[in-house]
């Protein structure tokens, strides 16, 4: 029987989402900051891992034009989030609101620093706030899913399209829906082990020189503590990614309640796409609490997002 290590991980088609680690009944797969570790002696050839792998799951045939997209530019008003956020701090503000209003009991998020991702499941407000800021690395957040918490408690999950693709399969297995799903926009991600090699290409040797990292208009941009900014074209660092990214056709997950990115918004603001009634409820509650300010995205910005979504969708045809 096929397993995810032989079929995906060993062939560089793994985005390290952590789903296989969560689903493995024997512990044959273990989480790692770069790629899951595999112990063939513990494998029982059940194939649960390969069946749940997002790079093995066919995308739903969905036309972005069929969605009536509600788009907003959003900025947090919470100072502690402002200092950590890459852009507008929308994601952290939404999760904080959902926890405070008891719409969810736990949040599955990616903490750590911009230098190293640390996935965690928490209901601690301080940990949620400290998690603010984008990490451009593959992170095995689904490996943090606790089966007892997952079955007994309401959970909010923040993840990339690949995370939410696998999560859809997990929902089928546990026979219940996750209460809140927030999708991050994603064009491509990178392996943590190559971080120093990437920053060396723009002349940075000490990671402590770095204040923020963002990807904008095809550029991997590093803002330094001294105010200087350096960048490199993402095409020049594509080799530090998984081949799974080349086969991913989702700019954001249409199965999410809310999608958040930066396409279409000014620097310092988050682009927020509300996809469901549940997502709209969180968005409005966050506004009511005064945690965010927002303004509608102009129609040309919505068109730009749709254009970029379609462009990424074409990866499926090419690969």
Q: Span from first to last CA?
A: 25 Å
Number of contiguous helices: 12
Oligomer: single chain
Mean pLDDT: 90
Number of β-strand runs: 13
Give me the Rg, rounded. Answer: 19 Å
Assign the structural class, choosing from mainly alpha, mainly beta, alpha/beta, alpha+beta, or little secondary structure.
alpha+beta
Q: What is the 3D shape?
A: globular
Q: Largest beta sheet: what is the strand line-up? A: 5-4-6-7-11-12-3-13
Order of helices and strands: HHEEHEHHEEHHEHEHEEEHEEHEH
Major beta sheet summary: 8 strands, mixed
> What is the count of structural domains?
3
Fraction of residues in H or I helices: 25-40%
Task: Write up what this structure looks like.
There is one protein chain. This protein has 319 residues and is of the alpha+beta class. It has helices spanning 4-7, 19-23, 48-52, 79-82, 90-100, 125-130, 147-152, 161-174, 195-200, 243-246, 277-288, 299-318, and strands at 29-30, 37-38, 70-76, 106-113, 116-122, 155-159, 180-184, 210-216, 219-224, 229-233, 258-261, 270-274, 292-296.
In short:
The chain is of the alpha+beta class. It starts with a helix and ends with a helix. It has helices spanning 4-7, 19-23, 48-52, 79-82, 90-100, 125-130, 147-152, 161-174, 195-200, 243-246, 277-288, 299-318; strands at 29-30, 37-38, 70-76, 106-113, 116-122, 155-159, 180-184, 210-216, 219-224, 229-233, 258-261, 270-274, 292-296.
Features of this protein?
single chain, 319 residues, alpha+beta, Alpha-Beta Plaits, Nuclear Transport Factor 2, Chain: A, eight-stranded mixed sheet, three-stranded antiparallel sheet, 12 helices, 30% helix, 21% strand, globular
């Amino acid at each position: 029987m096929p397993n995810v290590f032989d079929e995906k991980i060993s062939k560089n088609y793994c985005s390290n989402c952590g789903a296989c680690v969560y689903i493995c009944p024997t512990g044959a797969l273990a989480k790692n900051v770069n790629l899951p570790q595999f112990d063939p002696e513990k494998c029982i050839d059940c194939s649960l891992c390969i069946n749940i792998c997002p790079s093995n799951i066919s995308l739903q045939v969905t036309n972005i034009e069929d969605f009536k997209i509600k788009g907003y530019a959003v900025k947090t008003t919470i100072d502690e989030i402002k200092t950590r956020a890459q852009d507008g701090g929308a994601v952290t503000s939404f999760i904080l609101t959902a926890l405070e209003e008891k719409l969810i009991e736990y949040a599955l998020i990616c903490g750590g620093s911009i230098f190293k991702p640390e996935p965690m499941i928490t209901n601690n407000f301080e940990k949620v706030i400290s998690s603010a800021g984008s990490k451009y690395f593959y992170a095995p957040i689904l490996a943090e899913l606790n089966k007892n918490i997952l079955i007994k408690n309401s959970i909010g999950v923040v993840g990339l399209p690949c995370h939410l693709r696998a999560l859809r399969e997990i929902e089928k297995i546990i026979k219940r829906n996750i209460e809140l799903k927030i999708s991050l926009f994603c064009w491509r991600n990178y392996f943590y082990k190559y971080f120093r090699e990437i920053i060396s290409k723009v002349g940075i040797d000490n990671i402590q020189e770095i204040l923020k990292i963002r990807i904008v208009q095809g550029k991997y941009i590093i803002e330094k503590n001294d105010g200087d900014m350096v960048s490199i074209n993402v095409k020049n660092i594509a080799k530090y990614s998984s081949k799974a990214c080349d086969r991913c056709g989702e700019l954001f997950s249409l199965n999410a309640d809310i999608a958040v990115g930066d396409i279409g918004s000014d620097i310092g603001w988050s682009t927020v796409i509300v996809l469901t009634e549940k997502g709209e409820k969180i968005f409005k509650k966050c506004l009511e609490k005064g945690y965010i300010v927002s303004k509608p995205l102009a129609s040309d910005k919505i068109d730009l997002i749709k254009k970029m979504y379609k462009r990424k969708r074409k990866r499926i045809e090419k690969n």
